[in-house]
Amino acid sequence: MITRRQTLTLAAGAAASPLLADALAAPARAAAPAAAGQGFDPLADALLTHVRIRGHQDGRRVFFAYHGTFYAQVTAQRTVPMFHIEGASSARMLRQPDGSYLYQLKEAGWFCDLGSHEVVAEAVNPLTGKTVRPKHYASGQRTRFTADAKVVPMDALPPGIEYVGDIGRPTADRDLVWTTEELLVRTPGAPPSGKPRVQTSLATFSANLADLERAPDAFVPCRLNYQTLGSFLAWMDMGDVPGVITWRLAGRKTDKVDELPAALRARIEREHPEVLQV
Predict the structure, then answer these.
(1) DSSP the chain
(2) How many domains is the chain partitioned into structurally?
(3) Residue 161 belongs to what domain range?
(4) What is the mean pLDDT of residues 38-63?
(5) Is the pTM value of this prediction over 0.70?
């Protein structure tokens, strides 16, 4: 089964790139551009604004913690909430001589009971009445943010995969600035008769203008709003029934691992410690 991030990871190339590993091991501060800071216009440079809000422009690690709801819909029927979701990620990005940024992320998340928010090992799929075993996720992503505000895979795509990644033009309203990132992926079905799979990843990040106008090496706090739209997951046991899933998530960024929710951090350290070690 391929989860949300694993679908995007497949398209981006699952193997680690030596170029990325070497770049992330290099001194990060030396790569930071001088343009950001006091007098910086966040609407003039879509890429730098995105990098500063989403991560840290000098390669330092940042963390996101998020939570939300997993919904599913059989075509033409009412959408049904299925699970509470909670998870966290760590990421780094490093500027390159050509103006692009190498980006590396590791993430883990869990499907939980809608009421208690306790992690579930099995649950009844309300679309079918069948008992299913949700497959929680732990995965990585390696991409490049290009100077023309594209998100591109680090490695060649497998045959047949369609992949479009874009960083949106920043927008501002008084003291707030927003930037967006979208990944649109279609994976062909396995022969002889497998159905194609689609995955849409829509992220919106917002920050205070005053934080963006601080010194270039200053951390910029941000809030995350995320939506996804994709094919049913294999563990849902939906067979040939047509329909989609969607997630609605909200979260925030920090540069301190101690600021992650205590229970979530403990679960990650116990089950997927590599997620905090990008």
Answers:
(1) ---HHHHHHHHH-SSPPHHHHHHHHS-SGGG--SS-STT--TTT-HHHHHHHHHS-TBS--EEEEEEEEEEEEETTS--EEEEEEEEEEEEEEEE-TTS-EEEEEEEEEEEE-TTT--B-S-EE-TTT--EE----EEEEEEEEE-TTSBEEESSPPPTT-EEEEEEPPPEEETTEEEEEEEEEEEEPPPTTTPPPEEEEEEEEEEEEHHHHTS-TTS----EEEEEEEEPPPGGG--TT--EEEEEEEEEEEES-GGGS-HHHHHHHHHH-GGGG--
(2) 1
(3) 4-276
(4) 90
(5) yes
